[in-house]
Design brief:
There is one protein chain. The protein has 419 residues and is α+β, with helices and mostly antiparallel strands. The protein has a domain at 73-181 and 236-329 and 336-417: 4-Layer Sandwich (Deoxyribonuclease I, Chain A), CATH 3.60.10.10. The protein has eight helices and 17 strands. The strands form four sheets. It has a seven-stranded mixed β-sheet with strand order 3-16-17-4-5-7-6. The protein has a six-stranded mixed β-sheet with strand order 8-9-10-11-15-12. A two-stranded antiparallel ribbon has the order 1-2. A hairpin with a 2-residue loop joins strand 1 and strand 2 (47-56). Helix 6 packs parallel to helix 7 (319-325). 48% of the residues are buried. Mean pLDDT is 82; it is low at 3-34, 39-50, 186-204, 220-229 and 329-336.
Length: 419
Amino acid sequence: MVIIGRTTTLALIIPRLPLLCTISCSPRLSVSSKLRMSTSASTNTGGSGKSALVIREFVSVEGGGGNARDEADAIRFRLVSYNILAQVYVKSSLFPHSPSPCLRWKARSQVILTLLKDLGADFYSLQEVDEFDSFYKTSMEDLGYSSIYVQRSGQKRDGCGIFYKKNCAELLLEETVEYNDLVPSLHDEAYLSSDKQNAPLTNRNNGDSSKQDLSEKFSILSVKSSPENRGDPNDPRVRLKRDCVGIMAAFKLKHPFHHVVILANTHLYWDPEWADVKLVQAKYLLARLAQFKTLVTDRFECTPSLILTGDFNSTPGDKVYQYLISGNSTSSDRCLEELPLPLCSVYASTRGEPPFTNCTPDFTDTLDYIFFSPSDCLKPVSILQLPELDSPDVAGALPNYSHPSDHLPIGAEFEIAKD
């Protein structure tokens, strides 16, 4: 759930870090472009009945190679990123346009599970997961997925999860990203201006000293006053404490050969009036991800592939998006600082960003992305279709009987060539 509006900016100091990467998965046949309709039991406004859950399919992209390479020479795996809308945020007062049966947890949970099952991805990056222990963990285990999860800081009940097929990938290493680490401690000196706004092998968060060094560098902010009553917005201890998180993990793909992939999943802060905070979070995330890539490369003596997914609460024209892709941009207005990792958007680099991934009566635009670090061995070969603005299944905004969240799932199928 999100509302986007005006944006503001902020400046910060960012370190220059090295880059590296690795992962592997199972081959897959090419997919069709048909629209599938799955029925899920539900009650509509006119009484009980069946409602049509819309499940779109993956379509080949130009240059993706409709015909897979020889099975021994390439790995294909499917990835879906999806803000599933935490049930704790589902209130009829927030979604008056949605039929009330669509908002009830018992029905929603089964529709979401049906959608995930029918999409058939090897990896799922899910945001706003708030029933992890009581529902998603065990339900996805029954479908053959293992999982890792990080809950938001403070009293927030939702978080980010990565689900992966056990017969496809082996978890090597994981780290969590707590954006509250950016909050200066009470004795820290903050410099303000008035112009702007683990894995099986190690502890869950390793390299704490390096992480602390990064968070201290990113805590030197310039901020802009906000009309919201959230304490002193010029105080970084207030401005940066947004309880947002991310998670990153290294996986070894098993078939037909071994390859290491780093997959990161995050959910950045939502408020359009605090766009500077989102940009700080994005820069901190990439710096941490670059560190993690170096760690994985050195520890497992590999060259990992890297994919970043999530709800970035930023449209393609926003500074966060422009920053994330600036490492691969030749534009004259690219960020001045050196980006720790070069990234491309899967959709933008193939068929263009979709018209929207979030659809409510007050806001409809693209907020969710799959980024990847280009390499000779990794390329997207197909993407998950998304509806157009005039598609009947999104009429009247989301959630509805066709879509259980106010966001849409996005996805890509990747091919990894053998070295």
